[in-house]
Amino acid sequence: MQADPVWDEMSEDEVLDFAGACAETAQRAEVDLLHAAYQWAVMHCAQRLDPLEAAKPGRENARRLGGAGVSEVSEFAAAELGARIGRSPYAAARLIADAQDLHHRHPRLWERVQAGEVRASYARHVVTRTRDLSVEQAAYVDAAVVESADGRITWSRFEALVEGKVAQAAPEVAREKEERAAKARFAKKLRGEAHGMASFMIRADLATIEAIDAAVSAKATRIAQAQPDAPHRQTDDERRVYAVLLLATGAEPAADPADLVPDVHLVVHVYHGPDREGIARIEGHGPVTEEWVREVLGPRARFRIRPVLDLAGQAPVDGYEIPERHRQAVHLMTPADTFPFASCTSTSMQVDHTIAHDDGGATGVGNYGPMTTFHHRIKTHGRWQVQQPFPGIYVWRDPHGALFLVDHTGTRRIPTRFTEPVAVELWHSPIKIEYAA
Asked: Which residue of 28, 320, 347, 401 has the fewest CB atoms within a 10 Å radius of its CB?
């Protein structure tokens, strides 16, 4: 591979050859990463832990990350590996599990992966789908899909092939999954939507969904007949959405949509400043424009303005228990888990004292960090260290000396060996949040 290509001087064939070489390098790197993850698991076997220490509350234990037949791994090992490769502890644990399963439960697939004939992503999909199977059942799937795992069929066909072979290998497991799925009925609003739109999902057995679909279709047809010129109901999709609303509320097609729904509570954060665009954020949804707030919420919503919460002015308290106003301030300033590369944004996370209260740490903003229970345990018992030089700025040190900077923008690795001066920019500015409900 050419080290520093001069792009303007390359021919079409040279660009294609270079791209192919890059793809081969990336594929080989994925294989090497699986090798590293497996070796990390070997180094952090269950025998490494002290049984007496592991028996204490909150201490590190051994867990089997992969399927049946693979060795247990010390619980906190994935956090160190994940931080070094820029992934969460959960993602690193899945990488370790996949590497172990490929080594011990899918030898044919692993052989083709090492030979560069099968992409790591295909192999990892297989081991994930077979994790609940026995060693013998996993081996059956391994032999059944290894020939087709090299990309000769499309991804959707490969997924269907793997699913079918898993069911053939363990029909009793497939039946158990069907029974569990039958109990997992729900009707709920989904998270993660954007641009002022949201989704409501219903999960039920096929017969129930078919009945709902037929009812919505029939209602949409009647709406088209009764209101052929109604705005926002000109397409079949728009009429079907309105039909769902009518069916859910029991109203007639002539009803005003604003009168059909019960009262709902939305928290809207509005940011103002000389360089700010007109952007607001709805809790549990995401950013929207102020124009959207005026046009969509304005005609049907009543607003209650609450005062700005002064994050920096939250007075510490003399005690271990964290006041509710402090929890709210921490959520506004640091809405995500503060462990390196963590992803949780739940408001129910534990709020940890960065410097323990028993060690003189203040119960106040600037000494808090939201974390999941697992990450809290790693911080307390896993030989990780963390400091908070400014409120909302966290500097972590893993057990091997690597440094990570976590702030509201995410996680960045801080070099520990410098060949020339390196500047690390810390974004620390007063935060004022104005919101209405």
From this structure: 401
Are the CB atoms for 245 and 252 separated by under 8 Å?
no
Cα separations in angstroms, 149 against 31, 98, 155, 336, 431: 15, 16, 9, 38, 51
Burial (CB < 10 A; 0-12, 13-18, 19+), residue 432, is: middle
Q: How far apart are CA 39 and CA 49, in angstroms?
A: 17
- What is the spatial distance between Cα 116 and Cα 34, in angstroms, rounded to a whole number? 13
User: What three-state secondary structure class fits 288?
Assistant: strand
Burial of 149 (0-12, 13-18, 19+ CB in 10 A): buried
Give the single-character DSSP code of 322: P
**pLDDT digit string (tens) for 377-395?**
999 999 999 999 988 899 9
Q: How far apart are CA 382 and CA 49, in angstroms?
A: 12
The mean pLDDT of 43-51, rounded to a whole number, is: 94
3-state secondary structure at position 290:
helix
Task: Give the Cα separation of 116 and 151 in Å (integer).
Answer: 12
pTM (2 decimals)?
A: 0.72
pLDDT tens across 235-286, in order? 999 999 989 988 888 776 655 555 544 555 677 777 655 555 567 777 666 6
What one-letter code names the amino acid at 327? R
Q: In which element (H, E) is residue 231 found?
A: none
- Joined together, the tokens standing for residue 86 give 């820029």
Is the C-alpha dihedral spanning 213, 219, 225, 231 positive or negative?
A: negative
> What interhelical angle do 107-114 and 135-145 show, nearest 10?
50
Q: What distance in Å separates the CA atoms of residue 131 and residue 66, rounded to the nearest whole number? A: 7
CA distances from 426 to 334, 406, 407, 409 (A): 15, 10, 8, 10
Whole-angstrom Cα distance, residue 237 to residue 197?
A: 14
